[in-house]
Amino acid sequence: MKILLVVGARPNFMKIAPIVSAIDRWNAAHPDRPVERRLVHTGQHYDAKMFDAFFRDLEIPPPDVDLGVGSGSHTFQTAHVMLRFETVCEAERPDWVLVVGDVNSTMAATLVATKMGVRVCHVEAGLRSGDRTMPEEINRLVTDAVADLLFTTSRDADDNLRTEGVPDHKIAFVGNVMIDTLRRQLDRLPGLAPARLVPAGSRYGVVTLHRPSNVDRHDTLAGLLGALADIAAELPLVFPIHPRTRKMADRFGLSDRFTPLPPAPDGELAPGIHVTDPLGYHDFLNLWKDAALVLTDSGGLQEETTALGIPCLTLRENTERPVTIWEGTNTLVGTDPDAIRREARAILAGGGKAGRVPEYWDGHAADRIVAALAGESG
Ligand code: UD1
Predict the structure, then answer these.
(1) Does any ligand 1 atom lie closer than 6 A to the CB of residue 210?
(2) Is residue 259 classed as helix, strand or coil in its secondary structure?
(3) Mean pLDDT of the chain, nearest integer
(4) Which atom of ligand 1 is nearest to the CA of 101?
(5) Does 210 participate in catalysis according to the annotation?
(6) Residue 45 and residue 63 in contact, taking contact as beta carbons nearer than 8 Å
(7) Is the pLDDT of residue 267 over 80?
(8) Is the model's pLDDT at 378 over the cut of 60?
(9) Residue 66, SS3?
(10) Cα–Cα distance between 306 and 83 in angstroms, integer?
(11) CATH class of segment(s) 2-175+361-377
């Protein structure tokens, strides 16, 4: 069996890493039924800090194919991935194309493969925010509508797919590959001694923000940064800043809200919003795993904080990952600055939710996926 694994953007890399390892484990255990894997990077994220650092930290082999698509409008990215991926599919003639997550590359590769009659499986299928102004929601809907096999991370995703008319035989609840990576890398951390970003023993929060709906308009970004500045007066915040957010803060004249993170901090971290460049997986994990509070608009971090029981405030009006609210430590707070201040203060005063780890977020999701695929073809 031959499978093309497609990645494009930062949040894809931690989802593909355990699948690559699981294929290698499968091949070692089943030499009679090998799975040939080819890794295709679309090039949607290409900066050293958005790409290389993750491949290195997560021990992902270099891509076999790099489509080199780069940044651009949604149409530009989608169209260029489609054109270039078609050539790869024609040359490789795979049995399966495996896509992960909900970025433009996910949808583009899915459309190409299904139109060529190549079976597609989608890892992290069935998540729905219900918000069609969110580009990822369109990517999720389109991908799940045409893919042949839908691997889900939680039972509510199965329900979403059934509601959309997907037959049961196309749905497989396997758990969360992102948590496979989290567990594997937590085990490795003690031997790695990555850079220390904050003084040992200090109390701090972590921020990430990059959604266009939060950062592309002056008033929204100014309101969010105002709330964060108030929280940062009580709890220093560390903010590894996405290139899009840095660009917008500069354009809107809001960068004076930031102070750079001291290169080798000693003593207490001062109050304030301390920005750094985007971090690699290990440095970022080292940072957020000990945070008193995480404030984010990321999808993955809502799940990761739930897995480790860290309080998380999601600065969005909706989430496609409600299990992190029902079962985990996540609170959907929206983008109203007063609500953000209020919820953050409640958590800092000891009011954080107790959570539990959702079913099958156990570090073995990728093995279930590979067994299902190899079983299908066997
Ligand atoms: C993409 C995903 C989003 C994911 C996010 C994580 C889509 C629709 N969005 O959003 O779901 O949460 O990645 O990071 O696919 N840039 C660089 N260097 C890079 C990549 C981007 O400087 O390596 C800058 C460019 O100015 C670019 C902007 O960031 O225009 C946005 O990048 P893009 O890939 O279009 O979307 P993201 O906002 O990163």
Answers:
(1) yes
(2) strand
(3) 95
(4) 11
(5) yes
(6) no
(7) no
(8) no
(9) strand
(10) 38
(11) alpha beta
Q: What region does 247 belong to: left with phi over 0, alpha with psi -120 to 50, or beta? A: alpha
104: Cβ below 6 Å to ligand 1?
yes
Q: Provide the residue ranges of all domains of the chain, joining segments of one domain with +.
A: 2-175+361-377, 196-351
CATH number for the region 196-351 comes to 3.40.50.2000
Look-up: residue for tokens 């894809």? 12
Cβ–ligand 1 contact at 140 (below 6 Å)? no
Q: Is 119 in the pocket of ligand 1 (CB under 6 A)?
A: no
In this structure, are residues 337 and 226 in contact, taking their beta carbons and an 8 Å threshold?
Answer: yes
Question: Which ligand 1 atom is nearest residue 299's CA?
Answer: 12
Would you state the pLDDT for residue 377? 54
Q: Which of 51-60, 167-176, 189-198 has the lowest mean pLDDT?
A: 189-198
Say if residues 143 and 106 touch (Cβ distance below 8 Å): yes
- What CA–CA distance (Å, rounded) separates 84 from 147? 20
CB 247 within 8 A of CB 209: no
76: amino acid identity, one letter: F
Sequence-separated (6 or more) residues with CB below 8 Å from residue 32? none
- 345: how many CB neighbours lie within 10 A of its CB? 14
In degrees and rounded to multiples of 5, residue 154 shows phi and psi of -155, 160
Select from 110, 242, 284, 321 the residue to mutate for testing ligand 1; criterion: most ligand atoms less than 8 Å from CB. 242
Share of the chain above pLDDT 70, in %: 98
Residue 52 has pLDDT above 70, yes or no: yes
Cβ of 245 less than 6 Å from ligand 1: no
Three-class SS state of 294: strand
Q: Tokens 């959570």 appear where?
A: 355
The residue type at 240? P
DSSP 14: H
